[in-house]
UniProtKB/TrEMBL annotation:
Protein name, entry field: Chondroadherin-like protein
All copies of domain LRRCT, residue ranges: 296-344, 647-693
Cross-referenced Gene3D superfamilies: Ribonuclease Inhibitor (3.80.10.10)
Name of the gene encoding the protein in the UniProt record: Chadl
Main localization, broad class: secreted
Source species: Thinocorus orbignyianus
Region annotation (Disordered) ranges: 321-361, 693-733
Function (record text): Potential negative modulator of chondrocyte differentiation. Inhibits collagen fibrillogenesis in vitro. May influence chondrocyte's differentiation by acting on its cellular collagenous microenvironment.
InterPro entries in alphabetical order: Cys-rich_flank_reg_C, Leu-rich_rpt, Leu-rich_rpt_typical-subtyp, LRR_dom_sf, LRR_TM_domain-containing, LRRNT
Length: 733
């Protein structure tokens, strides 16, 4: 009987081993299968049925078909990171009722269909970070009743419709950071009764989405940092359980005294790195224990005294230091005494009928009919009112004016009289065809101007006359065929210029004349086929140049001279076939991020990267046609290198690249395209190089070729001191 049992056990073990797919490692004791970077184009069909953990990272699956995992119903953990997944078919995960963890990060998914995630009734964590998700169809999460964490960071979401997260009854953390969100439906977060933490940082929100947030009665932490929010309005935040609010690194210039009245549990308020010169006493925030104002240009004059007195009375700890006046520069807020906070002119006595901690400044005008004005917020809005002419009569102290989605074909001269305090002007989607000379006359404090999604094809040289402080100008999605010549002479403080998705064909000499402070220039999605050697000369402070999706046939090397601060250059999706010697030499001392992907590149000259070295942090060369690349051994600071979908010719001429990849602690995705017998094999795993002269000498540590394989005999395991399976798992190249 003992012999019989041993024979049966041996047979079962052999069966399990036979079922393990070729490029995978099967650990039957742990019910775990690893198929890392195995060039798989489909889910293997011979995975042991009792597998609980399946790791498929780094393959090329593209589509997850219907019922892809029906044969392995006991899965609890599934990792599909970096698998080039573009589509999840409806019903892709049916049969996985035990799955609790699903990682789909770093793929190319653009749309979540209604039934894409059906069958995952036990799922607790869903990670979709780093995809291209632009749209979520209603009901996509409707059957994920056990989900507690949903990670949608670093996608392309612009808008969240009402009830988009319906069905997530036990969700506790929703991560939406690093998207492009600027519109949230008022019911976007409805039906999330268990949510405790919401991350909305690093988006494009220009105001607090008050209506949407009011649905989150149980949330205790809200991250809104790194959004271009300029003001926080009165009663803007009504979240009954909120304890921690992060509004750091935004564009805040003012906060209403009663902004947080309806968030009585608020304990910490992070306002670091904004543009606040001070704050009013915060009425109703009785539970507040800490306010961080570090990195703000605080003016510690008598105007700040009411806030300072309120801090003392309410026993609120404040972080931050004075920027002015000079006598108090650098002094921490908590070290100031009221007599030190002086003004050069005496203030009028407070009104006996107004609360001392909430001083009001009388508005200098009425609000136009049909619009909404907030005296404390200094905010006027006539959004989507079907207006045909720009209204007049806003209070003179208005700082943010929202006129989006009206019909203003022409913005006439003097369109904004008596608005000398205006900082931010929104004219998106107004069908605007012309800005007349002097249209912005008198807006001497204007910093932000949004003209996105209009019909502008040219700008008069005097269109920006009187708005010399303008720093952020958005002109994307218009009809420009060339840059508006002469316009930037009047904008000496312009920092950021958005001209994506126009029809610009050329950057000519003098087009950017006057833009001496420009740091970020966005020109993606135009039709640019030529850049004059002196076109960028005025922009000596330029840090980012985005030229992806244009018609350039060569690297604009001559135009890059004189840009000593350029750190990011995007040339993706241009039809450049050859990169010549010294192509990036003009910016070699500053360049950190270089995008040369999806160009149809056929050849890169040996000296193409001359001058580049340790400063390069990321290099994108994926989806091109060259068969070899130059020596990059001096790129010692690389954090990201993408060589996927490049048909490398794996012969001895590629040996330097193979040796270099061996030394990198990065997953680069380099694959052989030829000769035929190596096609589809990872460069790192190809045995072709073992016949090359000097192969053994080139191996790190003098290892023999045998030890690069993922399988070995037990005796070799003992000599090497580590398991070959473990070595395979740790490999990142």
């Amino acid at each position: 009987w003992g012999l019989l049992l041993f024979t049966v056990a041996l047979g079962l073990g052999g069966l399990a081993a036979a079922r393990c797919p070729g490029p995978c490692i099967c650990d039957n004791l742990r019910s775990q299968v690893l198929c890392l970077s195995g060039n798989l184009t489909a889910i293997p069909t011979t995975i042991p049925q009792l597998t609980k953990k399946l790791d498929l990272r780094g393959n090329s699956l593209t589509v997850i078909p219907v019922g892809a995992f029906l044969d392995i119903p006991y899965l609890t953990h599934l990792d599909l990171q970096r698998c080039k997944v573009e589509r999840l078919e409806e019903g892709a995960f049916r049969g996985l009722g035990r799955l609790i963890y699903l990682n789909l990060a770093s793929n190319s998914i653009a749309l979540l269909y209604q039934e894409s995630l059906d069958g995952l009734s036990s799922l607790q964590q869903l990670i979709l970070e780093g995809n291209r998700i632009e749209e979520i169809q209603p009901g996509a999460f409707g059957r994920l009743g056990s989900l507690t964490v949903l990670d949608l960071r670093a996608n392309s979401l612009v808008y969240l419709p009402d009830m988009v997260f319906q069905g997530l009854q036990v969700l506790r953390w929703l991560r939406l950071s690093h998207n492009a969100l600027h519109v949230l439906g008022s019911e976007a977060f409805a039906a999330l009764p268990a949510l405790r933490r919401l991350s909305l940082d690093h988006n494009e929100l220009q105001a607090l989405p008050s209506d949407a947030l009011a649905r989150l009665d149980g949330a205790t932490r809200l991250d809104l940092g790194h959004n271009p929010i300029t003001y926080v309005a009165e009663e803007a935040l009504a979240m009954a359980s909120l304890k921690h609010l992060f509004l750091d690194h935004a564009a805040l210039q003012d906060v209403a005294p009663d902004a947080f009245t309806h968030s009585p549990q608020l304990r910490t308020l992070d306002l670091r790195e904004n543009q606040l010169q001070g704050l009013p006493p915060l009425a109703g925030a009785g539970g507040l224990a800490r306010v961080s104002l570090a990195g703000n240009p605080l003016l510690c004059s008598c105007l700040l005294r009411p806030f300072h007195d309120w801090l003392a009375r309410s026993r609120v700890q404040a972080e931050g230091s004075c920027t002015a006046p000079p006598a108090l520069r650098g002094r921490p807020l908590d070290s100031l005494r009221p007599p030190e906070m002086r003004c050069s002119h005496p203030l009028p006595p407070p009104s006996p009928t107004a609360p001392l901690e909430q001083p009001r400044v009388a508005s200098s005008g009425q609000c136009p009919q049909g619009c909404a004005c907030s005296p404390d917020f200094h905010h006027g809005s006539c959004e989507n009112r079907n207006l045909r002419e720009i209204p007049r009569g806003f209070p003179g102290d208005t700082r943010l004016l929202d006129l989006r989605r009206n019909v203003f074909k022409v913005v006439p001269a003097g369109a904004f009289p008596s608005l000398k305090e205006l900082v931010s002007l929104h004219l998106q989607s107004c069908g605007t065809e012309e800005l007349q000379p002097g249209a912005l006359q008198g807006l001497k404090n204007l910093v932000y101007l949004y003209l996105t999604d209009n019909h502008l094809s040219t700008l008069a040289a005097d269109a920006f006359k009187g708005a010399s402080r303008l720093a952020y100008l958005d002109l994307d999605h218009n009809a420009f065929t060339r840059l508006p010549v002469g316009t930037f002479q009047l904008l000496p403080n312009l920092i950021s210029l958005h001209l994506q998705h126009n029809a610009i064909r050329e950057l000519g000499k003098g087009d950017l004349a006057g833009a001496r402070a420009l740091r970020w220039l966005y020109l993606a999605g135009n039709a640019i086929n030529r850049i004059s050697p002196t076109a960028l000369a005025p922009t000596k402070m330029l840090e980012k140049l985005h030229l992806e999706g244009n018609h350039l046939v060569e690297v604009p090397t001559s135009a890059l001279w004189g840009l000593p601060a350029l750190s990011e250059l995007k040339l993706s999706r241009n039809p450049v076939k050859h990169v010549g010697d010294g192509a990036f030499l003009p910016v070699a001392s500053s360049l950190q991020h270089l995008y040369l992907d999806n160009m149809g590149l056929e050849r890169i000259s040996p000296g193409a990267f001359a001058g580049l070295g340790p400063k390069i942090r990321s290099l994108f060369l994926e989806s091109n046609k060259m068969s070899n690349i130059p020596d990059m051994s001096n790129f010692t600071g690389l954090e990201i290198l993408n060589l996927r979908d490049v048909p490398f010719h794996c012969d001895c001429r590629l040996l330097p690249l193979r040796r270099w990849i061996d030394k990198l602690n990065l997953r680069v995705g380099a694959t052989c395209g030829s000769p035929a017998e190596t096609q589809g094999v990872k460069v790192k795993l190809s045995t072709t190089f073992q016949t090359c002269p000097g192969w053994g000498r080139g191996k790190a540590g003098g290892a023999s070729p045998d030890k690069t394989k993922t399988t070995s005999k037990p005796s070799k395991k003992k000599r090497s001191g580590k398991s070959p399976a473990r070595g395979f798992k740790k490999s990142r190249a």
